[in-house]
Design brief:
Helix content is about 35%, strand content about 15%. By secondary structure, the protein is of the alpha/beta class. The strands form three sheets. Strands 3-9-8-4-5 form a five-stranded parallel β-sheet. Strand 8, helix 9 and strand 9 form a beta-alpha-beta unit. It is globular.
């Protein structure tokens, strides 16, 4: 798959009738129009961490105080909550690969709405370790990334950014523990470093929670010479109440 150009699939191509993954009514895709309209609302979000904001500011207070962040921009399509949490869990942990295209289209639509985003030169999935990939059988981030790259006519590759250390699950760790746990987890394959150097790279993942994983991946890409790193995620975990 080494980053070859993938011929785009027309966005208007017909879908076979299927049951909506949320309401179970027949529709022309994995998610019906009514459910998309109801649950994929367009929100004002911080351009750097994608948390919801009241209309007006571009960055939340935390991001304004945080200088030198490795991620330049973050785009999230929806908040991580009903029904997206169940759909992503099914996709990620229960082999629901039939949901990949629907989730990718929701994210693709969010990216397209941000016309001000600098154009990405390369789309990369946040990689899994060998152990996690063997356990799961596929990388859900690559299933999203390769579809979005095809629709946007951008090159994509699953093997430019590598996860060289299995960090285990981040659940239950606080922010500083997550950062320490991820230190040195990623590597840009030296054979593909010229494809990163001087370019704008878009990382793709299913969910962003603390942002620690994306920050460490972005830091690795920056060290390899990336000019800019964006993160595109289907869902963003909301800030604690």
């Amino acid at each position: 798959m080494g980053g070859q150009y993938i011929e785009p699939m027309p966005l208007s191509m017909p879908h076979l009738p299927s049951l909506c993954a949320v309401c179970r009514r027949w529709s022309a895709g994995g998610l019906c129009g009514d459910c998309l309209q109801r649950f994929a609302d367009v929100a004002v979000r911080c351009v750097q961490c994608a948390l919801r904001l009241p209309a007006g500011p571009l960055r939340c207070g935390a991001c304004l105080r945080r200088a030198g962040a490795p991620l330049d921009r973050m785009v999230a399509a929806v908040d991580y909550g009903f029904p997206w949490d169940g759909l992503i869990t099914g996709f990620k942990f229960h082999q629901r690969l039939d949901l990949a295209a629907s989730l990718a289209r929701v994210l693709h639509g969010a990216v397209r709405r941000h016309a001000e985003l600098p154009a990405a030169d390369l789309v990369l999935p946040v990689p899994l370790s060998r152990e996690r990939l063997r356990e799961r059988g596929f990388n859900q981030a690559w299933e999203l990334a390769r579809r979005i790259a095809r629709w946007q006519r951008i090159k994509a590759s699953p093997d430019v950014l590598l996860r060289i250390r299995d960090t285990g699950h981040q659940l239950g760790l606080n922010e500083s523990q997550r950062v320490h746990n991820l230190r040195g987890a990623f590597l840009v394959d030296p054979r593909h470093a010229p494809r990163v150097r001087g370019h704008c790279v878009a990382l793709v993942d299913d969910v962003a929670t603390s942002g620690a994983t994306a920050d460490e991946a972005a830091r690795t890409l920056r060290q390899a010479g990336a000019a800019q790193v964006q993160l595109w995620v289907v869902a963003r975990t909301p800030a604690p109440a």
